[in-house]
Input
Amino acid sequence: MVETLLADLRSARRSLAARPAFALVVVLTLGLGLGATTAIYSAVHALLLRPLPFADPDRLVRITSVRGGEDGMLNVPEQDDLLALSNVIADVALYTDQGMYNASGFGAPEELPATITTHNLFRVLGVGTQVGSTFPADADRSRRFDLVISHGLWTRRFGQDPNIIGRTMTLDGAPGYYIHGVLPEGVNFPVGSDLFRSSGISPAGEFYQRRDVRQRMALARLKPGVSIAQAQSALDVLAARLAAEFPASNAGLGFRALPIRDLYVGNVRPYLMLLFAAVALVLVVACANVVNLMLSRSIARDREFSVRTALGASRWQLVRQQMVESLMLASLGGVAGLGLAWGGIQVITGMVKVPFPSWMTITLDGATVLFLCAISIVTGLLSGWLTAMRQSDADLAGALKDGSRGSSGGARHHRLRHALVVAEVALAVVLVIGASLMVQSFWRLQQSDPGFRPDGLLTFRVEMGWRAYDSHDKVINLVDRTIDRLRELPGVEVVGIDSNLPLSGKPREPFEVAIDGQGVTEREQNPFVHLHVVNPEYFAAFKAALQRGRAFDHTDVAGSQPVSIISQDLAARLFADRDPIGQRIAVGNPALPTSWSTIVGIAAPVKLQHLASSGHLDVYRPHRQRWVNGFWFAVRTQGVHPSSLANVAPPIVTALDPDQSYFDVQVMTDRVASGIWQQQVSGALFAAFGGLALVLAVIGLYGVLSYLVSQQQREIGVRMALGAEAGHVRGLVVTRGLKLASLGIALGVVAAWSGARAAESVLFGVSAGDPLTFVGVPVVLLLTAAAACWIPARRATRVDPLVALRAD
Output
């Protein structure tokens, strides 16, 4: 058996070496299809399929509150309410993931991302510590400073000191943060946290126990066998009960359960699935092309196989030889695809603009290589089987009589080859139409108005610690001194600040909003809103427009009338039947006097989360009237590129306070671009896949017509000998090719129409049935097909009638 296989391999190697051009075309065609498919599969596997580093991750869900269609946070008592759903939920941890701590005392100050959580977060995740332990349960209900640190921080700042347990850190100017343990390498939650601090919730009856204080998110572990749909049903019942029991805080509020993976991939999922479907079509086109090529070669080898049959070779031996050759070509195509996949992965990762956890790294891992091997083998078996079946049906005796010309291969195999070409053209139409829609969508998204001018802005973030900056006056002092120093830099036009920077990718959690005089029933219809604490120069720095009313000025200070500006969309949502200016609203807990302010202006919509976002429900407050400890600085330049100040402007903060750090320094245009990387990747790859499919379809059409011309040399010769004009002969060949192309285009348009409707949610500014695309693409493909048909048609008219007749 082994000797037979080796003999077949040697024979296949000789056969392919005798036709190197054919082998090279097949290998490259397969390599392109396999490489592109594998590269996209690597992204799908990394982001959607690879197991998360938590125990039974399919049972983990993130629970948010929902009001007015907007996601929000939970209050502390709702943890107990969720735990009471013991038939559905096994455990619930509360956390916040937007904390930043200014670490000092061990080198240059560094801003460290922190997750503030209840002690059971690690139990809910199903992870332990590599060194030490998690903090105890009583840390949840005290003002202790207990820490678990990431493996990365342990390595970076402490050199993996095994005696780290018991050491303390100075954070935000406060010493005594006690280190209990270190997480294993690669384990983190949600993304990039270096510190996990005990929640420090005050004892029962105090501020954090109030149901109108929503400052926590929830991570729950479902009971075994409980689906997310079942959990959502239980949450709906709970929401209705709490709304009846606590109407002041829970009326009109629901809960939503989301799989934990959605926390990481979010709106990437539909783009990935769309790309995977597209690249699968490319692979099908490539395989159809390879089958067509191998059928052509098989027909041309009829005389060879007829001689071998006459010499005693069995049908099985001939079929086995075809299968071995096909698998050898598929294996070589797989090797080529492996190299192309590696390059494709580098391109994809270079285009991804957001950080993913280490366990979601897109790479050519074992699972991806196994996938490549599997589809290579399947491709080889399929193409080998089709050609072998054709060979087993061929009239080998007739082929021996026909000499070197080869047999016709039978009407059934002509139909198969024609069907493959029609399928290639149809799939190419689907991909080119998809590429047109995705590229248009990305272009229009790039051209969309974010509500401000991102060019000329340098941005960076400063989070001031609660101990060092424990009063509003201290915060204002550092902010104002920093702004004054920034203004002195050459090329600086104006400096704005914002606690909630648009398009930063890190929006702060939304707040509840209330209108003065609203009852509970009316208030429950209000959406969550986003709060921006800004300075008077904010609108000038961002070149954002005020539609009505006035901007903030330097008289809007503590002690003066609290004022606010709201976005046009929020004004329409809350004040549809009256003028918002002069009305009083509360952002946050309406029971707190500091939450209330009077509306003095209406701002034009500014996109907060990404360029495709809508529903700009924003409230702006002056920074001297609303106390927050974290700001983004936005430095608008004139005459110089903002990046030229990247190493000069942010260090001013540390020069004013050596213990204060800054981070996330970027020009605003880069931030905007990073928010639409999904559309950029999809548009670019769709365009590449569409172009590749079009080229392969044209090659397939050209190959079929070329073969038909070579098979019909005698017929063409007779026509020419009887006086047929060259134009008539060319017309016959072109017409035959265009019939196949037209059928493929018609089928492709129908399929593309259905596919575009299904993918409408990922399009921006272009309709799924865009008439320009659905008319223009078929016309372009028809012209391209005509060009592909012209070459063999022209060659047909160059047949010498005497030579053609003599050849028969």
About this structure: Residues 410-447 form the longest helix (38 residues). Confidence is low (pLDDT under 50) at residues 402-409. The longest strand covers residues 89-104.
